[in-house]
Design brief:
seven-stranded parallel sheet, 15% strand, binds 1,4-dihydronicotinamide adenine dinucleotide
Length: 248
């Protein structure tokens, strides 16, 4: 069976590292992106250059019609999805809860929670043996923030990742006897561009002293754990979490 993977928000950071590693492990990969087509195409080109199979599809995971269209396009271009990485996620400028308006909360919760639910829904419809599928695996990209709470920075973001943790457990149990495994990774401080959205591009450099290993992590270190969870090596692992946070 050909392995077909969708990585949401796959044009940079942890998503891009995951897409490239997956291609090396013989997955046909769909790199979903929000706006930056050029960046997504670059990842596709580098995968193709290495002999792999990849496509890039624009979709806002917060939009139900976009998500439905994304999965339909993958059906047509790569075949039925066998693996999903719910990676797309956002955070907003660091502030306290007392300064967060409803519009900000809507944006964070819609992309981070509803986006992951919608993608998981479409994946389950295609993977579940109950629906004639051949099974599959889902990895949700949560965050150490779900355990730590991110006080003074982004409690909204941390809470959205808490919801992802709960969704991981509930969905995993819901589809456990339908051939689908659902797990999550909880990265700590990883060197990516997401920190610029929080208003502090060099955040990892500031906070790394609070990490027991005294360093930030690299996207590839997260990607390796994601690929393990997707693989048959993790065949009895579901409803589980891997913390990739240097001990934090
Ligand atoms: P990033 O900002 O480079 O990647 C996020 C990607 O998601 C971007 O490509 C962005 O365009 C995409 N995206 C955002 N909204 C989207 C939408 N509505 N539809 C489709 N795509 C959308 O940052 P990074 O760090 O690679 O983040 C990946 C995941 O890892 C996120 O879920 C993030 O919350 C999580 N994470 C990151 C940590 C870090 O320290 N970098 C720590 C813990 C978790």
């Amino acid at each position: 069976m050909e392995k077909v993977l969708i990585v949401t928000g796959g044009s940079r950071g942890i998503g891009a590292a995951t897409a490239c590693l997956a291609a090396e492990q013989s997955y046909a990969v769909c790199i979903n992106y929000l706006r930056n087509q050029e960046a997504a195409n670059k990842i596709v080109d580098s995968i193709k250059h290495g002999g792999g199979r990849a496509i890039a599809i624009a979709a806002d995971v917060a939009s139900e019609t976009d998500v439905i269209d994304l999965f339909n396009q993958v059906d047509q271009q790569l075949g039925k999805v066998t693996a999903l990485v719910n990676n797309a996620g956002i955070l907003e400028p660091q502030t306290r809860v007392e300064n967060m308006d409803a519009a900000r909360l809507q944006r964070i919760l819609t992309t981070n929670i509803i986006g992951s639910f919608l993608c998981a829904r479409e994946a389950v419809k295609r993977m579940s043996t109950k629906h004639g599928g051949r099974g599959g695996a889902i990895v949700n990209v949560s965050s150490a923030a779900s355990r730590l709470g991110s006080p003074g920075e982004y409690v909204d973001y941390a809470a959205s990742k808490g919801a992802i943790d709960t969704m991981t457990i509930g969905l995993a149990k819901e589809v456990a006897d339908e051939g689908i495994r659902v797990n999550a990774v909880r990265p700590g401080f990883i060197y990516t561009d997401i920190h610029a959205s929080g208003g502090e591009p060099n955040r990892v450099e500031r906070v790394k002293e609070f990490v027991p290993m005294k360093r930030g992590g690299q996207a590839i270190e997260v990607a390796k754990a994601i690929l393990w969870l997707l693989s048959d090596e993790a065949s009895y692992t579901t409803a589980s979490f891997i913390d990739i946070s240097g001990g934090k």
